[in-house]
Amino acid sequence: MAKMLSQGKVALRALEPDDLNILYRWESEADAWTSSNTVAPYSRHLLWEYLKTYDADIFKTKELRMIITNGEEPVGTLDVFNLDMRNRRAEVGIFVDAAHRGVGVGETALQIAKRYAREVLGLNQIYATVACRNHLALNVFRNAGFAETAELTEWLVCEGTLCGALLLQCKL
Questions:
Q1: How confident is the model at residue 112 (pLDDT cuts 50, 70, 90)?
Q2: pTM value?
Q3: Cα 115 to the center of its chain, rounded Å
Q4: Which of 33, 85, 91, 108 could anchor a disulfide with 10, C-beta 3.0 to 4.6 Å?
């Protein structure tokens, strides 16, 4: 694994066809839909088509999805999206499987993403939008060096009602 994309046992790697089953399981978890703005599960066929046609050229597509691994085991995903090269920023999102939360994997994955965004993409900052009630995710971003810079009222639908979100930024 390239040093740029790893830190200790945690690493970020490209999507592989073998990721179909784990992505299907993660994308079908209704409790993750709030943070991903998903409203229904993805079919296995749709995910297979996504994997077959996925273009990891972030400069062309303005987004990049990577698998987070702990050792060799896939434990989550990290997305860099809304790439804005003119203003040297991008948004980042993270999902860590429930069985692997609370052990620092998310914070480490974000540290790797920060290094990648700074050294490879040449960005000045990355940011995230997180539901105010998602305390676990907020702590992960805070622990990774993100600062809250704005509160967005009635920004997301959370469990059927509008809820606020926090904008978190990290200067690279």
A1: very high
A2: 0.91
A3: 15
A4: 108
